[in-house]
Amino acid sequence: MTLTQEKFYKEITPNGYGIAIKRGETLFSDNSEFQKVEIFETDSTLGRVLTLDDLMMTTEGDEWHYHEMIAHIPMMQHPCPKSVLVIGGGDGGTIREVLKHNTVEKVVLCEIDGMVIDACKKYLPTIACELDNPKVEVLVQDAIEYIKDKEDMFDIVLIDSTDPMGPGEGLFTDEFYSNVKRSLKKGGIMVAQSESPFAQAESVQKMYVQLKKVFPICATYTSNIPTYPGGYWAWAFCSEDVKPLSYYAQDREQSIVETCKIYNREYHNARFALPNYLKKLING
Fold this sequence. Notes:
By secondary structure, this protein is α/β, with parallel strands linked by helices.
């Protein structure tokens, strides 16, 4: 049977290529005031899929490629992360990974779209399983406004945002990054998803120009994500005073690694080794 004879979810990048996934039943589809939210079954090893405005956000089959990387790389480079802010991330996967660290006392989830949270709790329970944890404070509000008056509050800030368009657009500005930096405690780390350096090179380059204006330490790490554009993703590691790989929480290593499908110390260290084209892209 050919591609055109079956029902597929397709996402094509501006570069003219993309992915196709065999669709099954649509479990949830509605429009919030911000975006279209949809969760559907697939006839594939990917299981259920979440899309926002018809763009891939997460799948049950490969979500750990993203959530383990955004959470454990910064968390393991802090000696005792107690307070964590997750911006975006309404599917709950980043929250789940953060709470694997026994040092954490409180996690704030600031997600602009409550529909995403509710839909994921109902239809993606393996990803959203920790959103009702008593350590988690869920705020359905605009993170741009939330962060403006925060100072010296968080050990880790994770920007688990959508692409720089629609409700996520304001999370890619100098002003926003400056407010995030102010919210960090001494020794704090911010990590932000920074798009695909292969499929979205222009957006990546622009983002790192902005970040370097704000953070004296700004590095990049990468990993593969099978269902994201290009299959290759980058995250920005930013801090006032913490250099990448300058510390590693050996006391937490075993308890974290044994719960993960991708993360381990060797993989952690290797993530900061960059290909030449990406070095050139972010360094100008």
